[in-house]
């Protein structure tokens, strides 16, 4: 038979034979592969699923799920429902699930996998898993009863994820996570807080506070016609309503308790600032002192007071400390004497401006106009401030203080005018002006690189926190304006986020603000602005009607600071140590900031009388 050949001279018949052999080999391999798959499908419903994933440790394999309901491609074990196969731990029935692969160790640990929250959904890793998905699918009655019992008994468990170790999943009970954090809120008579808001029309001689008291103390929503703000979270907030805002935030605190014996600290929701504001002008000292004397008498008669004689109590007074420190009993003296009462000296008093020379009050940020309800609102605002174009070198919003001899505001206003286009001035007067309209203040700060923050009627200003919110680097002229005040909220190293120009040099005409700021290297300015923008979450109070997910706001930082302070005092009392201070109270600012009372360059600023 003649063999046909191709162009290369090779016979076609030989090529055909080779093709037949190739088909035979492929068919044999396919048959082998199908048999292998059948074998492994049986393997997966057995006890050794881990073997399929590359881990052949039978001890680990016994703890892994096999049926179709899956969590991250892993099912809960059928053997969990069978007491003869798997022993659940007596305390909490904890189950550890561990995977190892060749690329490295990957550990997924769960604590009490049946701890379902009340709404029936529990976070497992980064996935949401419903209760139905967690149940074995064999419909075994005994298993279902076990799961339902576990869910009922452990429904208070919550999951916490360690951000440093994303592979380490933990579910902690509420009681454990609140250990050392419980706060008891005194149920004080309504005349000390609620009734004050109901009579909001009498809280100020010049301002109708009723509108500002709306929205849990945040005030009315701000319109955004000029697109100065973000779309949500902005309110026309009065700086003296911090007591109301803080109280409403406290109602949302995760670790409240109705058992005062369990509390690490006790909150007194007395609206001290709103109370005294009614009588600051034109009233005698007895009217101004009446509320303070009544509240401390009420506290002193409560059993909670005797536990630590009030040293575990704290209160927010939403005005500057000088409104509560009247040194003499004369009608001509300003304010009341709340801060000077023996009971108040035992408590932790929180004010928007503290006394550098006293140890029982602590400064916390003024409320700003921004009260976000979600983390994302904060992140978006921070990013917007990073991108903001700033054409003004420095700006100042404020008015002169002709009656204060030591004030440097006149000199600052003059220097700003002399700088022309490099400085923008928003001059405030006693009448209606742009200074009292948030849109003008925030717009100017957002367009400025530096914002001047000289003392006014007192050392501090709300404008400090408005400028931080706008990403504008604050320029201070007195260490008492921020550095010795907001120790819980601002960095101890003030050079990271601010510029300090001594007020004495401004008063004597020895320095030019414009030249000092222009000499700062561009890279340094960028770093300082980034530090300021990072501070934004720490100096704002979130909307009390919701909660931030991961960020700590000013309220959270205050609570943490109070708890740490009370814990230190409690520990000293247990050890028999003297809880009073072993240094002169007039240098308490120095000890709180530096941990020492040695001489310091700021001593001339903080001598009594240099306010």
TrEMBL record:
Molecular function GO labels: glycosyltransferase activity
Protein's recorded name: Probable xyloglucan galactosyltransferase GT11
Compartments, as annotated in UniProt: Golgi apparatus membrane
Superkingdom of the organism of origin: Eukaryota
Positions of region (Disordered): 150-172
Entry membrane topology: Single-pass type II membrane protein
InterPro entries referenced in this protein's UniProt entry, alphabetically: Exostosin, Exostosin_GT47
A GO CC annotation given for this chain: Golgi membrane
Family: Belongs to the glycosyltransferase 47 family.
UniProt source species: Prunus avium (Cherry)
Designated gene of the protein: LOC110770015
One Pfam family named in its UniProt record: Exostosin_GT47
Signal peptide boundaries: none
Alphabetic keyword roster: Glycosyltransferase, Golgi apparatus, Signal-anchor, Transferase, Transmembrane
Exostosin GT47 domain location: 178-515
